[in-house]
Amino acid sequence: MILAIHTLISIVIAFFISKYVKKRFIQSSYQVNKQDLHRLQAIIDENQFYKMLFRFSLHKNNFRSSFLYFFIFNFSMPVLGYVTSILLAKLMVDMEYTEKVSNTNILNLDEFGISFLEVERVFGEGSLNDLIHSQYAPKSKKLRALNVLSTNISPANLRIIKQTLSSTDDEIRMFGYAIIDKAEKRLAKNINKELERLKAADNAHNLHDAAEASKELAFLYWELLYTELSHESLNEEFLDQVETYALISRRHYLILLDEIVEENSQEHLQIINTLSKLHLLLGRVYMKNEAFEQALTEFTVAQELLDNDANFVLPYMAEIYFLMGKYNIVASILSKLQSLSINSTIYPILEQWKRA
User: CA Rg, the chain, in Å?
Assistant: First the structure.
């Protein structure tokens, strides 16, 4: 009699606990069903008894396996098992685990069904960077390489040139310093020139010159940041200068735009194009300050000013959404950028985002 009562209690408790813990398990979905089918195919050569036991591990049989487990658990430990199984079930449902990315979903490039364009370095294995830092390369070639880099003062080129400042060769070190010094002086000279022009325009109440000078100042301060010629301690101050002069220039150009009677005239189109560039510049400033919502607003306006024919804005918007973690929007934006597909370096990345 006691055994029959104990068996009945074990069955009842196991049944209700199994119903309760069902909420902890995924019952059915396309991915889960596909995974279960794959697991069954993996044991197709096993014996029938093994297959029968294995089926209890499938997601759709979670209730059965839970019921069997709790019944055996309760039956094997009278009274104590009742309380323990209830506490165990509550713990299973209420416990939360730290989320871990266990599946990175790395794309298999073979799935694309196409071959990417072959990307080669422009200078082959004898790249300028390797050439300048090679201890075996002749000094004359290193100086020629530095001279080539000096014709295009970009962040990448400047990083290579700055590395020569620690060179043990005096001639190479001094040449690298001369290139950087020349670039800094050029920017400083142009900034002083535009500051004087802005001051004169304000005194003469010349709105057009004031707008032009403010625009040039905004872009010159941005170039200081972009080319990394400015000292790191001054970056924040220069960003403020870029924003200040860009806002001043935009305000002046909006006034000039209202004064134009004939729309779609050459002057009207030039101001629209300039305003679009100013909005783009402000968007990049806000990106650096991690004010993503403000940056998106500026980029959207820049695009709308050119009747949505501003594909150069979209990569910045994609970058913002990536930083915000909105990857589905990134894929949507990049799928619209057909012009990027002609860039052999970016093309593989673009295809992965489009097909991910």
Answer: 34
- Extract the tokens encoding 23: 């909420």
Low-confidence ranges of the chain (pLDDT < 70): 23-33, 36, 39, 53-62, 96-129, 154-155, 230, 261, 307-311, 336-356
CA neighbor of 59 nearest in space, from 21, 29, 27, 16: 27
Task: Give whole-number Cα distances, 85 to 6, 73, 91, 92, 101, in Å.
Answer: 14, 7, 10, 10, 31
* 3-class SS shares of the chain: helix, strand, coil, % to 5: 75, 0, 25
Beta carbons of 337 and 314 less than 8 angstroms apart: yes
Q: What is the pTM of this model?
A: 0.57
Q: Which two tokens stand for residue 267?
A: 């002057």
Q: Which of 70, 69, 39 is nearest to 55 (CA)?
A: 39
Per-residue pLDDT tens over the stretch 306-336? 765 556 777 788 888 888 888 778 777 777 6
The pLDDT assigned to 124 comes to 42
Q: How far is CA 123 from the centre of its chain?
A: 29
Which regions of 254-339 does DSSP assign to beta strands (E)? none
**Does residue 191 fall inside a structural domain?**
yes
Q: Would 151 be classed as within a structural domain? A: no
Cβ atoms of residues 275 and 304 within 8 Å: no
Provide the residue type at 234 as one letter. Answer: L
Q: What is the CATH number of the domain that holds 344?
A: 1.25.40.10
Look up residue 203 and give its two tokens: 């005194």
Nearest to 227 by CA among 183, 291, 181, 264: 183
**Quick one: 216 and 350 in the same domain?**
yes
Cβ contact 229:158 at 8 Å: yes
The answer to the question of residue 165 being in a domain is no
User: Average model confidence (pLDDT) for the chain?
Assistant: 76
Same domain, 216 and 344: yes
